[in-house]
Design goal:
Layout (H helix, E strand, L loop, with lengths): L12 H12 L5 H8 L3 H13 L19 E9 L5 H11 L3 E6 L6 E7 L2 H12 L4 E8 L16 H7 L5
Antiparallel strand pairs: 1-3, 1-4, 2-3
Helix pairs in contact: 2-3
Length: 173
């Protein structure tokens, strides 16, 4: 499970601008960033390295369109479990390891976990649900099926609220 950073790195507007750009296009060149942000290429390189070392940038990836692989069925599954010592970590990891599961969230409220899954067919979904309920400690599931997806470009830096942006920059609100 992800742990919060105990000491958050210090950011400025330039760091956030760099993060926004690389989130939109991970393949953007140093030259283009330097030109767009009106700073030197070496400064961009230094700041990117600093953001990587601080685990702010955790990887460089390509976005694969799931529809191109026929993964058209999306299920949102609420999972209720038996509450025993360490259950959140153990069950969360087991859910996350299942092929077909894209995201797992440990939640507070009526359900314990929410799993987002993507498959090609009802048969694959039935098999996935069978594998979920077979995990020791899982008592019950309830799934919802997505009828239409909207733009799922996940960006962090570009989607900060004004209040969150001020907090990241260390400005008083």
């Amino acid at each position: 499970m992800n742990e919060s950073h105990l000491t958050a790195p210090e950011f400025d507007e330039t760091d956030l601008a760099i993060l926004e750009r690389v989130e939109r296009d991970f393949d953007v060149s140093l030259e283009t960033l330097a030109e767009d942000l009106d700073i030197s290429k070496s400064t961009i390189h230094y700041r990117l390295n600093k953001l990587k070392e601080a685990d702010v940038i955790t990887g460089i990836t390509a976005d694969v369109d799931p529809l191109a692989l026929g993964l058209e069925m999306v299920a949102i599954t609420d999972v209720s479990v038996t509450h025993e010592r360490g259950y959140s970590e153990a069950i969360g990891e087991r859910l996350n390891e299942l092929d077909g599961v894209e995201q797992v969230y440990y939640t507070m409220g009526d359900v314990d976990f929410v799993a987002i899954s993507r498959v090609q067919s009802r048969d694959q979904l039935n098999d996935l649900i069978d594998r979920i309920v077979a995990i020791d400690g899982i008592n019950e599931t309830s799934s919802k099926f997505v009828m239409q997806e909207f733009d799922n470009d996940r960006t962090v830096a570009a989607d900060l609220t004004d209040e969150a942006r001020a907090a990241v920059l260390g400005e008083d609100g």
